[in-house]
Specification:
The chain is of the alpha+beta class and 98 residues long. The protein has 2 helices and 5 strands, in the order ααβββββ.
């Protein structure tokens, strides 16, 4: 598409060429938008694959007391409110809190 756009000089086009040029530019913009959306989706999926241990629970903002977290038959009971980011995961059958 870039090659098709590169052969045109916008100031030296007749009406039909301007129309084709405009359509090519619009298609180019649409493809760029789609690529950005797909790239963001890819980043999100890759982040899912980077979980620690055998499953991971990430708390970004707040976790409240009396919450039970179960990962691979291992349980953790939260006793206190925490507003700091924290991760829970199981590795070698041991519940780890980071």
């Amino acid at each position: 598409l870039n090659q098709k756009l590169a052969i045109y000089t916008p100031s030296q086009l007749d009406e039909s060429q301007k129309k084709v040029y405009g359509e090519l530019e619009e298609a180019h913009e649409n493809y760029n938008k789609q690529l950005k959306i797909l790239y963001e989706r890819k980043k999100r999926y890759v982040s899912y694959l980077h979980s620690k241990g055998d499953g991971e629970v990430k708390v970004n903002r707040c976790i409240y007391p009396h919450v039970n977290i179960t990962i691979k038959n291992e349980q953790h009971h939260v006793m206190e409110t925490s507003t700091l980011p924290v991760s829970y995961y199981v590795q070698n059958n041991e519940f780890i809190i980071v």
